[in-house]
Amino acid sequence: MPQRTLLFVLFDGVQSLDVTGPLEVFNGAETHTPGSYRIRTASLEGGPVRTSSGLTLVPDAALGEVPDPHTLLVPGGQGTRSSDPLLTEWLRTHGPRARRLVSVCTGAILLAEAGLLDGRRVTTHWAYCEKLARDHPAVEVDPNPIYVRDGHISTSAGVTSGIDLALALVEEDLGRQAALVIARHLVVFLRRPGNQAQFSAQLAAQTAQRDPLREVQQWITEHPAGDLTVEALAARASLSPRHFARAFQAETGMSPGRFVDRVRLEHARRLLEDTGDGIEEVSRASGYGTPEAMRRAFVRAFGTAPAEYRRRFRPASAH
């Protein structure tokens, strides 16, 4: 098996987790399969860089001293807001030479400024998708997935999604079982597919201001198979259905029905990954009622049926 050199580009204002998250994944892969990766870090001049949180990172070398790598990884952070022209020029020259080009979070902005994303479908942190699309109209920006792979270019959303993308790359290089072993070692709660939305139901929805609505939100997440009609939820909040629906939308940013749909989808997904329950049992436990209803929800959200989803994202030892 050929050893793959991975180069992490460092700069002042980099987000530390954009670097250390993927780095720990690849280091774990090297521990699991010795000789699989050689990890390098470099800054423009080879000097230490200060991350956006104040942590100092000391690179191995200057960028000009490192041979062109197999995988070039560009993290994000505050330093991407006013990038160094010398770094942009280095990326423009050396980026096309990498067999695999990867960005985490707003690292995609640096790649776009270097002209490396034109004609590509990419993503970045949700808060910067609009800026990336506006400043670089030749780039197709998808604000929804946690990571996007377009040919040899892979881009991920904010911060921790870099771990998900790194696990996907390890799976490509070393196999599915290796990636799952590393995920378990890092105590990654969920190995998320790339087309999963950047927000979970609980993150996508704002927390309601009023106690009755907050309690309803919590009750929904704990009882996905319960009676979650607007009428039943309104009664739980001691409001009329019409008032409840309006208040829920106003305070959480989404309708009760949409919130319920997201909670049920996440619950079903976790059961498929973490248990041996049958498809029919999972559909009932998640509030779908029938396997066909759950299948339609999965195809709509993930582009795949529940059985195929389980095959792809459940550890082989659990089958």
The secondary-structure class comes to alpha/beta
What is the end-to-end distance?
28 Å
User: What count of helical segments does DSSP give?
Assistant: 14
Along the chain, the helix and strand elements come as EHEEEEEHEHEHEEEHHHHHHHHHH
* Radius of gyration using CA atoms only: 22 Å
> How much is the average pLDDT?
89
The best one-word shape is globular
Query: How are strands sequenced across the largest beta sheet?
Result: 5-2-1-6-7-11-10
Gist?
The chain has helices spanning 16-32, 85-94, 107-113, 129-135, 161-174, 176-185, 201-204, 211-222, 230-236, 241-252, 256-274, 279-285, 291-302, 306-313; strands at 4-9, 37-43, 49-50, 56-57, 61-62, 71-74, 100-103, 121-122, 140-141, 147-150, 153-156.
